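protien #1 (seq + structre)
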Amino acid sequence: MSGVLDASTSADWRRPDPSNMLYMNLDTGQIVFELAQHFAPAHAENIRTLVSERFFDGLAVVRSQENYVAQWGDPNAGEDDARDHGDAASSLDPEFYRSAIGFPFSRIDSHDAYANEVGFSMGFPAGRDGPEGRAWLTHCFGMLGVGRGNEPDSGSGAELYVVTGHAPRHLDRNVTLVGRVLDGIEHLTTLPRGTGPLGFYESASENVPIRSIRMGDELPQNERLDIEILRTDTVTFSLLVEARRYRAEPWFVDPADRIGVCNVPLPTRIR
């Protein structure tokens, strides 16, 4: 894989739009996300509103479930003293999937259990029924999702989670995925595990405080992460996928010669 990346050119890389970048600060460090504006525009915009009104500042990570997710939001959600959403919507129509017609999709050759076709769309792992059907983001490690209740429209972006374990692909098309982690996921994967049901923390003292969440375009240039992401619509990316499928390193005795969408690395580089 390193040889493929060493041979890449500047045209193979892209810089994410600062207005789609989310900076989450915990006491242990910073996590940086890219929002999937093209898949979940309403939720992305609602998250921008929540962030601009400082909704998340002082709230907390309330859940860390082993091999599953880390989740954050208002510990008092649903109570009389819950934080007001301000100008943001408190519920949104779900954006579980969208039309695949005319939508950019770089298919990979993979026998997937959850989708007819899998690949990447504008830098995000995705599945689709076919070019004339539906397309959706997939629950790979590091993906950012919108928490909801039983009602499909009960999510708004006020509660968010990140996949921190084995890909729970059964959640595909049942939750709005709105982005992915670009940097700093170790600050979520190493959180103490919750001992309550589903990994929720059982007391306020266990909650992990959120110092702040900011959009990239709110920050001065010197506080933004100077990061590039390998484009997923390039020959270089296709070569990387094949290098991961057919493992030629001397260590491998019996390479699988297969690959799953969540096993494909999405390289980034910090300048």
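ok now protien #2
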Amino acid sequence: MNNFTAVPQIMGILNLTEDSFSDGSLYLDGIKACMHAEEMLSQGAQVIDLGAESTRPGAMPVNPEMQLQRILPVLRALKLKHPETSFSIDTQSAAVAKECLAQGASIINDISALRFDDGMAGLLAENEDAKVILMHMQGTPATMQNDPKYEDVLLEIKEFFVQRLDYCHSQGIRKENILLDPGIGFGKSLEHNLLILANLDFFADLSFPLVLGASRKSFINALYPSEPAKRLAGTLAAAAFAIRSKVAYLRVHDVAEHSQFLAVFDAISKRRMA
């Protein structure tokens, strides 16, 4: 994983869940999950992000044992066939992260930014090659959309990042292993989400690569009513702003369409006259 790229890398979403907002239950079957991951890799994904616990608004926790039961067979099969591919694990559990890192995962995508499991920071400090995505969230998945409020959403997210970065430093996690995610849809209103997307470069002075997860999110539906699977155009609009702000990774459902979008955008950008 490079820290900063002119064109973002694509992180393909593989939900091994019953109740994710967009594709819950589609890939609970291990064979179907592996086939979908193979498809995303063939379409241009550089990272596959596996998650076995839905974090949609109102979602309830899934215990570590169930998460591992869903993730490990798929991760092992994919890592055996694609040993050079980066696999990310979307979990807040140190027990899940530990087992998955041992099986070849290289990134832990923690929506709690290491706040919900005291064992996570030490685990990441011990695994010196493991990267971690620290995401901002107000509340928990079960409560985060219960009337979120901020005095200044951009400043408060930045202050949160500074606090979590200080914590990571105190725990011995390497700076070069940290990525930041402003958490679109996690404890944010429509206006909050739009302000973040319009001002992603507000976080540039932190000097950490950004991950953006805007794919199929409900803010698109609020602007143009549509089912999750029909929000591609809105997702690509968000991606355009992400490129402008030099976001390093786009976490997406529709890999082929994003690969095409980025290829065309990059080709045109390289021919832009000063």
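The domain at 9-55+64-269 is CATH 3.20.20.20 (TIM Barrel).
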